[in-house]
Model the fold of this input.
Amino acid sequence: MRRLVVPDTGTAEAWRALARSCLKEGLAPSEIIWDGEHSERSLFDGEPPKRSSPVNNTVPRSFVALAETVCWHRDADRFARLYHFLWRLKDAPHLMGDRADPDLAQLRGMEKAVRRCQHKMKAFVRFRELGDPQGERRRFAAWFEPTHHTLEPTASFFANRFGDMDWRIVTPEKTALFEGGKLSFGPGAPKPEFPEDASEALWLTYFRNIFNPARLKVKAMTSEMPRKYWKNLPEAVTIPDLIDTAHARARAMAEAQPTLPPLRAEKARNQLAAHRSAWEGPGDELAEAIRACTACPLHRTATQAVAGVGPADAALMIVGEQPGDQEDLAGLPFVGPAGQLFATVAKSVGLDRDKAFVTNAVKHFKFTPRGKRRLHQRPDSREIAHCQGWLHAEMQRVKPKLVLALGGTAAQSLTGDGSRMLERRGTVELLDDGTPVLLTVHPSFLLRIRDQDEKRAEMAKFEADLRIAVEMLGVLEQGKAASTHGENR
Ligand code: URA
Done:
């Protein structure tokens, strides 16, 4: 039985050298005790020690990389596990690609844990300045408690990043010292008392300011920043308060709407504007002009173009994506399942659909034939751009007080940005002429949800969005009544 001691500095390299010579000698895993790892014996109980003939085979590079990381794991059996797998590899080099192999799976899990620990270390080491900030080389120190032995393999990251300073990172087991551009390692120590650091107040202010209460997801946050690290993070003292007040702050942000669309949306809108074919003919001929449109190939397969319908002075304009199968045949928007669902929800919240002008961002039905069925296809940005002139002309004609955009295609055509609808839904964005656009999802999104609980939840959100439309219309109409009243006096 051979007892091998792997040092705790230079560990990965030392293990590699030892493992290579054991392999060369033909020492089976059961003939080696890796330093202090008595538990490993249980792995091989009953296996008679055997000396095989010396082997001289090459080791896959992917194993070398794996071993280099796993060596820093806290598991006392890590060296034995690695050598056991290395021993198996010499007869079956394909094992490195065998995802079902339990030994490999275990090593991969350990590798992942070490990498995660390294990532946390890079993210959560907080330096305190020691000594004179005006000194020739500034000096810093940090205390960290890694889950695995990751100080050494991660230290080069800090050396690259803070190469022009002197620093040390103290952990319970080891200290990394970087002085005059040279990295070395010494014994660990208990948590030192650090002096106050003036830049810490600045960091706390910065952290408070970048914290977005509307994006708060406590579960995701605590998984990314586990609580065990909090005690060494200066900003952690602010987290409970930021969480407690997030709801109120997010509400205040929402109430401060409407907001202007982001700059990139503006850019996209300007590009789309180039496609505008503003209709300058009489308003009552607009629908006819739309039906005659052949600007894009969609007109070849669709039955007809479907223009908007509703009062020409409607306060509300509802914009969908494109006609569906039934709308294409009927020549009217929102008469199929999505339209019916919309009508039901609208009625339940007191939104009178008949008083609205109902239309679509794209006027022709886009589909792929599948047997006797015509399967809906989402219009692409060129098709949206071609039809944007028609939507614009409809808006010019109706001059709605409020536009309700149903889904990403409508949002793209109107605001230049069709993304992140689940985040933007229920919010209002302003068009160039000041017309407010209330964004929500498309009713066909609700029709596609299979899970009943999820469907109920989404329906409730959709209802809430339509309620906002009702409330906004009330306010906008009041404004109109008030100004009319004023004019009459
Ligand atoms: N979906 C839409 O977006 N518009 C319609 O007219 C029908 C279904």
About this structure: Residues 5 and 35 are 4 Å apart (CA to CA). Residues 125-187 form one domain. The chain has four domains: 2-121, 125-187, 206-256, 274-488.
